[in-house]
Amino acid sequence: PKETMAFAGKYEFEGDENYETFVQKIGLPSDKIEMGRNCKIVTEVVQNGNDFTWTQHFPGGRTTTNSFTVGKEADMETMGGKKFKATVKMEDGKLVADFPNYRHTAEISGGKLVEISTSAGVVYKRTSKKIA
C-alpha cells in the first residue's frame, strides 16, 4: 500500500508538547535536556519498502541514525544515546517501536511528521514540517 511509502523526506522540528516532563520521566541528564529543548532537529527518512534509515541531524553537527526493517529486530539508539534492540512494527500506517522506557510512534499526518513517545502515562509529542 502507498501509505507505507509516505515517510521518506526531510523534516524540520516545528514544535513539541510535554518535553520537559517526559525527558525527566525517562531520566535524561540535564545537559541532554538543555540540548534537546526547542532544538531545530532535522529528521531525514530514507525508505525502501519496509527498510528505513532514520537520521536525526542536531544543530552543531551531531547525528543519530537508526536503520531498521519493519518486523525485524534491529540495533537502535535512544534519545539519550543508549543502545538497545527493538522490532519496529507498522500499525495503521504508523511506525511503532518499544524503547527501553518509552513507546514511540511516528506517522505522517497532514504532510507533517508527528512523533509521539509515551512513558508511564506521560505523552511527549513532536511535530516536524516537511522541508524536502
UniProtKB/TrEMBL annotation:
Q: Tell me the leader sequence span.
A: none
Coiled-coil segments on the chain, per record = none
Any single GO CC term annotated in Swiss-Prot or TrEMBL for this entry: cytoplasm
Q: Which GO terms describe its molecular function?
A: lipid binding
Ranges of residues in domain Cytosolic fatty-acid binding proteins: 9-26
Chief location? cytoplasm
Q: Where in the cell is it found?
A: Cytoplasm
Source taxon at top rank: Eukaryota
In Pfam terms, one family for this protein is: Lipocalin_7
Q: Which UniProt keywords apply?
A: Cytoplasm, Lipid-binding, Transport
Keyword Cell membrane annotated: no
Can you tell me which family this protein belongs to? Belongs to the calycin superfamily. Fatty-acid binding protein (FABP) family.
Descriptive protein name: FABP6 protein
